[in-house]
Design brief:
Elements: E1 9-12, H1 18-29, E2 33-37, H2 51-62, E3 66-70, H3 77-91, E4 96-99, H4 114-142, E5 145-150, H5 153-157, H6 163-183, E6 188-195, H7 208-213, H8 220-226, E7 236-240, E8 243-247, H9 263-268, H10 271-274, H11 287-299
Helix pairs in contact: 1-2, 1-8, 3-4, 4-6
Bound molecules: 1,4-dihydronicotinamide adenine dinucleotide.
Length: about 300
Amino acid sequence: MSIDLTGRVAIVTGAGGGLGREHALLLARRGAKVVVNDLGGSVAGVGASAGAAAAVVEEIRAAGGQAIANAASVTDFAAVTDMVEQARSMWGKVDILVNNAGVLRDKTFAKMSLEDFRTVIEVHLMGSVHCTKAVWNYMRDQSYGRIVLTTSSSGLYGNFGQSNYGAAKLALVGLMQTLGLEGAKNNIRVNCLAPSAGTRMLDGLMTDEMAKTLSPGSVSPGVLALVAEDAPNRFILCAGGGSYERAYITMTRGIYVGVDDQAADTVAQNWEAIGDRVTETIPEGGMQQSRLEFEKARLAGGVNQA
Ligand code: NAI
C-alpha cells in the first residue's frame, strides 16, 4: 500500500534548496498541493531572494504537480500568517506542515555573541512555533493535521561549536512532546525528523563520497512517512542515506536515597546505579517522573504526611 497525499495541502518551509526542496518535490509527486516557502538567504541567514522557492515551484509544475511559492521569513509571524491564508485561499485548507527552514551560526560558546545565539533560536525554534501556531487551530477545527519539526543530532547528542543550534533543535523535541499530547484528540500528529544529509549546511564536513551517499533526497521518504495518514505521533525519526533510526528520551528507575543530611554524598557515590539503564522506561508524559519518585518514596517509607 503506497502513501497517497492526493487532496492534501502541505507547507514546507525552507524548501528552496537542500532537504526542504526534496521534501517538497516528493510530497508533490505523491499528490500533495505544496506551498514552497523559502526566504532565500545564505546558510547564516543573510540576504533574501524569492528565486529559490519560485524555482522549486517551477520544477513541481513541470512534473505535473501543484505548487505555489512563498518567500516569508519564518521569523515573521505576520508574514507566516499570510502564507497560511495564501494556502487556504488557494486550496481551502492546510493538512501538512513540514518545519524545515534553518540557519547556522557556529562558534564555540566562549566566542559566540548573544545575537548569534538569538538568531538561531529565532529561526529554528520560533520559526517552527510561528508556522505551527498559524496552522494549529485550523488543524484542530478540521480534525486533521500532520506536523514535522526538524531536529538534529546536534541537539539530541551535542556538537562542538553548536550550542545555539543544539539548544534550538532540542527545544523542538520538547515542543513535539507537548503538541503531540495536545493535538492527539483532534487527529493532529506531531513528529520530529533528525536528518543527515550532504547539503550546503554541511559544506566541508563530509567527504564527497559521504555527501553523495547521504543525499538530501534519501531523507525525504522519512518525511513522507511522518506526514502520511497513518503517521505515528511523537516519533523522533533519524534518517540519512536510506537508513532510519529512532531516538528516545528515556528515564532510568534510579535509586531511592532519602532526604537526610548525607543525601548529596550518597548521590555522588551512586552515579552508576542512578544511571543504570536496565530498568529504563520511556515516559509518556512529564508527570511520570513525579509518580515514580512518589512511588519510590512510598515503598521506602519516605512519604511526608506533615
Ligand atoms: P539548507 O541551508 O540547504 O536549507 C535551509 C533552508 O532554509 C534554505 O533554503 C534557507 O534559505 C531556508 N531558510 C533559512 N532561514 C529561513 C527563514 N527565516 N525563513 C524561511 N526560510 C529560511 O540546509 P539543509 O541541510 O537542507 O537544512 C534543512 C533543515 O535540516 C534545517 O532545519 C537544518 O537545521 C536541518 N538539519 C540538517 C542536517 C544536515 O545534515 N543537512 C542535519 C540536521 C538537521
